[in-house]
Design goal:
alpha/beta
Length: 302
């Protein structure tokens, strides 16, 4: 049975890596309307250090953290996240998931089904859907309609020459590349504005680069070039829409901590209202389905 959050919901954190330490923990510790109920990690010493730095407690037992929380945020590799999200939902905890929810359709579907069976709220933290001004821009373009074409390129330099990014040590990113790491960001903009993806073509480029051509339910088409291996001087994230109103460019954004705090607010609102958030576990499943098909298609053209 889903827990009923009080006026100040208790929210725990699963994960102790750079993303958890730089975004999730600071946002939860600073959130005036939530209680940071604790940290669990696969490395107890890292959980203890992060908890101490964040003014909360570490848990050795993840089920004990579930019992002490109304909701949990997950900052874990996707295929570690998925089974733990299922356990959290079964314990009645509302879940704030990271993208992608899982890298297999079966894994993502298990999460979505568990969330629905337990009646808990879910939100997938696709940064652009919660950051400002991108969140407002997406809503405005969805309301405007009349879009004919979308063009996007997300050229990350995580594995580019000279990169010293802390995220480069992530095994799942190394294995799955930009398609799975930054692809959800682009899709999280395209789907609410252009409609669901109805057809996919994908071909591989240099290193982990993928080029996607998508057809959407609205009749619009879109393209996306995704990589984590761009030279640092070429790194950029950009998305442009073309339609009856002319062209619209995704604005620049900053502040993942602020965006994550907005995602926390969205989860709490969904938990209180019972109304699903547009960027929920079922949406996360759809992202995994699309990325899986893109990966298969690109492999056929390799």
């Amino acid at each position: 049975m889903a827990k009923k959050p009080g006026a100040k919901p208790r929210i725990g954190l699963l994960g102790t890596g750079p993303w958890a330490a730089r975004t999730h923990a600071p946002a939860l510790a600073a959130h005036a309307d939530a209680e940071f109920s604790g940290v669990w990690g696969r490395r107890p010493e890292a959980a203890a250090a992060l908890a101490a730095a964040s003014g909360t407690r570490a848990f050795d037992d993840v089920d004990a953290l579930f019992a002490a929380s109304d909701a949990v945020a997950l900052a874990l590799p996707p295929d570690v996240q998925a089974p733990l999200a299922v356990r959290a939902a079964e314990a009645g905890c509302h879940v704030l998931l990271d993208k992608p929810v899982a890298t297999t359709v079966a894994g993502a579907r298990t999460v979505a089904d568990a969330v629905e069976a337990a009646g808990v709220a879910s939100v997938v933290f696709c940064t652009l859907r919660f950051a400002e001004p991108t969140a407002r821009w997406i809503d405005e373009q969805a309301a405007a309609g009349g879009w004919f074409l979308g063009e996007a390129h997300w050229l990350g330099s995580l594995y580019g020459p000279g990169s010293a990014s802390a995220y480069a040590a992530s095994p799942w990113r190394r294995e799955k590349g930009g398609l799975w790491d930054v692809g959800p960001h682009v899709l999280s903009v395209y789907l609410p504005v252009l409609g669901d993806v109805t057809a996919i073509t994908a071909v591989p480029g240099p290193d982990d680069t993928h080029h996607l051509v998508l057809r959407h339910a609205s009749g619009a088409s879109s393209t996306a070039t995704l990589t984590l291996s761009a030279p640092p001087a070429a790194a950029e994230a950009a998305l442009t829409l073309y339609g009856t109103s002319g062209r619209a460019e995704l604005p620049r954004w900053d502040g993942a901590v602020t965006a994550f705090a907005a995602a926390v607010d969205a989860l709490v609102t969904a938990a209180h209202s019972g109304a699903p958030h547009p960027c929920d576990a079922r949406f996360g499943l759809r992202l995994t389905e699309i990325l899986t098909e893109a990966e298969r298609c690109a492999a056929d053209h390799a």
